[in-house]
């Protein structure tokens, strides 16, 4: 399996069964310019959306128009994508009651978004000028979170779990642990103690390998870089026995 990290929570996954993508966001504001364009998704068959925030959905309508990909999105997020130009015939409701993509035995699970805490909000406001704060409000109101979903899929008998936001409840985490995950794609963004929160979640899910994502400074000054080294240290303190695999920004790895 070839796994490409697009930045934020975005991935392109290539396997013998085909090519799929998760939460592609390539615009990036004033962040480091992405080498990817809408044409990078020409061979993608399905795009799976974890939730509706701008850094997960902003580029999806344009990506859909430049590929044959079907867009799988839950509830309100699908409606908002249609309002932003996504053709109705390309949208599929990402139900958690059935297999969504048989080639990858891909399923969706109800999940939750991490709660932004006051220290994070305060530090973000300190970095932002008035115009930046106005932009943040506009992006927040224009791209509502909607339902949050986690996705599991399989390649060569290996099970991968993609989490778009680290708000998982204990019940959800236990459900994910029962999946016996080989690779966990875990988001490091959205809380002042995000490394500790995700380390705790990783310990419960107990994957063989955890791959952090969303830790890049994707939309400054509204975003910031998150230390993966701190995440490693938090996992070490919890006596996590698995491996941490850090994929460099915009790079690929074969797993």
Q: Key features?
A:
255 residues, seven-stranded mixed sheet, six-stranded mixed sheet, 8 helices, 13 strands, 28% helix
Please provide a written account of the structure.
It is a single chain. The chain is of the alpha/beta class and 255 residues long. Helices cover 28% and strands 24% of the residues. The chain has 8 helices and 13 strands. Strands 6-5-4-3-2-1-13 form a 7-stranded mixed beta sheet. Strands 7-8-9-10-11-12 form a 6-stranded mixed beta sheet, covered by helices on one side. Helix 7 crosses helix 8. The longest helix is centred in the middle third of the chain and has 13 residues, at 130-142. The protein is globular, with a radius of gyration of 17 Å. The mean pLDDT is 94.
Blueprint of the fold:
Layout: E1 2-7, E2 10-15, E3 18-22, E4 46-48, H1 54-57, H2 60-65, E5 70-73, H3 75-83, E6 91-93, E7 107-111, H4 118-127, H5 130-142, E8 148-155, E9 158-162, H6 170-177, E10 183-187, H7 194-205, E11 209-213, H8 228-237, E12 243-244, E13 252-254
Helix pairs in contact: 7-8
Parts with pLDDT < 50 across at least 5 consecutive residues: none
Strand content: 15-25%
Distance from N terminus to C terminus (CA atoms, Å) equals 5 Å
Based on CA inertia axes, which overall geometry fits? globular
Our count of helices gives 8
């Amino acid at each position: 399996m070839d796994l490409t990290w697009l930045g934020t929570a975005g991935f392109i996954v290539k396997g013998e069964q085909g090519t799929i993508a998760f939460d592609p966001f390539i615009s990036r504001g004033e962040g480091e310019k992405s080498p990817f364009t809408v044409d990078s998704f020409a061979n993608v068959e399905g795009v799976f959306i974890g939730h509706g925030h701008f850094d997960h959905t902003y580029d999806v309508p344009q990506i859909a128009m430049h590929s044959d990909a079907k867009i799988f999105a839950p509830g309100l997020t699908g409606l908002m994508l249609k309002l932003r130009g996504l053709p109705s015939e390309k949208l599929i409701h990402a139900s958690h009651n059935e297999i969504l993509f048989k080639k990858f035995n891909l399923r969706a699970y109800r999940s939750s978004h991490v709660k932004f805490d006051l220290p994070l909000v305060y530090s973000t406001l300190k970095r932002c000028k008035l115009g930046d704060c106005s932009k943040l409000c506009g992006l927040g109101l224009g791209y509502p979170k909607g339902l949050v979903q986690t996705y599991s899929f399989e390649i060569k008998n290996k099970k991968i779990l993609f989490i778009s936001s680290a708000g998982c409840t204990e019940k959800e985490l236990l459900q994910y642990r029962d999946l016996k995950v080989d690779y966990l794609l875990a988001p490091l963004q959205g809380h002042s103690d995000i490394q500790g929160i995700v380390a705790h979640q990783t310990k419960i899910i107990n994957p063989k390998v955890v791959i952090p994502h969303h830790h890049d400074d994707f939309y400054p000054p509204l975003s910031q870089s998150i230390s993966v080294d701190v995440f490693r240290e938090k996992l070490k303190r919890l006596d996590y026995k698995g491996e941490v695999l850090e994929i460099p920004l915009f790079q690929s790895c074969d797993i």
